[in-house]
Amino acid sequence: VLDSQYGTYVWPCAVVLAQYLWAHRRNLPGKRVLEIGAGVSLPGVVAARCGAQVILSDSEELPQCLQRCRSSCLMNRLPHVPVLGLSWGRVSPELLSLAPIDIILGSDVFFDPKDFEDILTTIYFLLEKNPQAQFWTTYQVRSADWSIEALLYKWNLKSIHIPLHSFGADKEHLASSSLPGRHTIEMMIISLAQSEGT
After folding, report:
1. Count of H-run helices and E-run strands, the chain
2. Mean pLDDT over all residues of the chain?
3. Strands of the 134-140 sheet, one edge to the other
4. How far is residue 147's CA from residue 137's CA, in Å, rounded to a whole number?
């Protein structure tokens, strides 16, 4: 799939993250949620429909993805959900002026290893500004060689693995896809590591 088309599909990871949001829907009303790398925005749309105050974002360099976010909002009767251009690893006026956040969402953002540090730099910046916030992310296991463990340590972040069966996402049909490749999906929640002595 070509780079320019990343944001034009509902990827299997988005379905799994949307399932997690649905399973926790009673906790979402009033939560302030930012989806990064939103593309067609399924997780963000689900969060908004469940009562969260959502901001969608994708790369400022991919206007077609930002337009896809807006279209998804309109199709789901969410015309007032803001859509921002935020590029990972770049401190921009939009990033600096974000309102407080409780939850950051990212489905399949850990796609290209060259982007991993930029993503975690942005997540670290957001979590430093919002120390109680969490980054809820799903990713597709594409290679046994990639890991973000060293980068988590570098950026003083920690992760916990969320078993898919714990929120009913371990069903074959849930993350099935007509897109090529196998679809082993994992979920983790990333937060700030404790300072001093951890």
Report:
1. 6, 7
2. 86
3. 83-85, 53-58, 32-35, 103-107, 134-140, 185-192, 157-161
4. 14
The DSSP bridge pattern shows strands 103-107 and 83-85 to be unpaired
> Residue 78: pLDDT above 50?
yes
Q: Which residues contact 133 (CB under 8 A, 6 or more apart)?
A: 101, 102, 103, 104, 126, 127, 191
CA 11 from centre of chain: 12
Contact 87, 68 (CB under 8 A): no
Cα–Cα separations (whole angstroms), residue 180 to 12, 28, 107, 141: 11, 33, 18, 14
* Cα gap 145→197, rounded to integer Å: 30
Say what the pTM is.
Answer: 0.88
Domains and CATH numbers, the chain: 29-192 (3.40.50.150)
Report CA 14 to chain centroid distance, whole Å: 8
β-pairing verdict for 185-192 and 134-140: antiparallel
Distances (CA, A) of 193 to 19, 27, 157, 171, 186: 26, 23, 5, 32, 21
Six-digit token pair at 184?
């082993």
Angle between helices 42-49 and 63-75 (to 10 degrees): 30
Answer yes or no: are the C-beta atoms of 47 and 81 closer than 8 Å: no
pLDDT of residue 99: 93
How many other CB atoms are found less than 10 A from the CB of residue 163? Answer: 10
Question: Average pLDDT for residues 143-170, to the nearest whole number?
Answer: 87
